[in-house]
């Protein structure tokens, strides 16, 4: 209970700091300082955690020691995650203390998320808060290797939307060499190259239905190719601790329906963004979230699919603020004040998302309670 109060206390102070930044600086500078505050506060909080915080943190510490002891090019290249093995091996030349893998993973993950938020979202403040309240931050303290891959793919999509295709492919391959579930990132490239219209939306919907029908065969094929992930069919992690990534609960479905609400709002809005690049990014985000919601509703009880869907659903932290901005644009300014409506909506979204945050912390999903810092040990 004390650690839950601690997390909510940090969140409250973070919100206050974000408000102060927004009122103290112009938009561009405020967005930059919001991003820096995220890296310092959330990155620092995650980096300073002890090995007991996060169900799989001890596992990653053990892997860190093992990778160096067995470290040679043959073992690295034959590893199931060669780039991650190379990365951990190189870190040993900085420090042999396993805490360094916690520190570096935390800073890389939070920095990559901050870069993505800064690139996609006009409301960096709200996106940063949603990263915490939608539980992505706490998941990252558990399944760190997958979140490294997620972070790399997030940055890859930033370059993809800038039409720097070769950088996308380099980062995509890198993400796959960190965690094989990152293969799902090919979806981002497909979404990017398609010029979306009503016909193509219908065709993609038909394809989605086909994938839903044959998903068991596809899932079995993936497990045949990557047998290490067969463990998720029984709902435990490598440490035999049930974690959020290996749980199937109604809360996951409710959050997915919450995402669906924003997709519906975006669909009903007639006025669009005047910035062509922003509108293109928004179309990309909408398709990603439609896929995330569609698969999230059907597969909320499937452990492996829940992990795969997280590559898509994490875009909700930038999609929701963009939908709010679009909604505000559709309000008649002659009858109401847009700033006042925006303030109420943002406060409402934060309050609503604090509910699943409380529920998941209360269940201690990802085993992040109690929070202990290695500095205090």
UniProtKB/TrEMBL annotation:
Superkingdom of origin organism: Bacteria
Signal peptide bounds: none
Keyword Transmembrane assigned: yes
InterPro entries membership: EpsG-like (IPR049458)
Pfam family, one: EpsG
Keyword Transmembrane helix assigned: yes
Segments crossing the lipid bilayer: 6-25, 32-51, 100-120, 132-160, 166-194, 201-229, 249-269, 281-303, 309-328, 340-359
Sorted UniProt keywords: Membrane, Transmembrane, Transmembrane helix
Annotated protein name in UniProt: EpsG family protein
